[in-house]
């Protein structure tokens, strides 16, 4: 079964990391992939998202049309900063895998959610 592992945090903290701390954290993340990739638990290597300041939010307006705003519509401190798709037999196993993700500045939570399957 596939699960989305959402990396959640305050991207303003991540963007202000000194280069040596950012490099150290990235090395830990690469190590995480090196640990899990050979086990077949990484279904998709995932993606790191650019800061929320680069985002656009689309909502339905009063007339039913689209209303586009810069960045997140609400003032959120925590946003999804990245996603990895993992393969696990149970949500408990997915949580176990997710709990080994390296923590650092700008990373406050890991959310694990089963992917929908409409087969």
TrEMBL record:
InterPro entries in the record? Dimeric_a/b-barrel, YCII
Species per Swiss-Prot/TrEMBL record: Virgisporangium ochraceum
**Family the entry assigns:** Belongs to the YciI family.
Gene3D superfamilies hit by this protein: Dimeric alpha+beta barrel (3.30.70.1060)
Q: What is this protein called?
A: YCII-related domain-containing protein
Q: Which residues form a coiled coil?
A: none
**The YCII-related domain covers which part of the protein?**
1-113
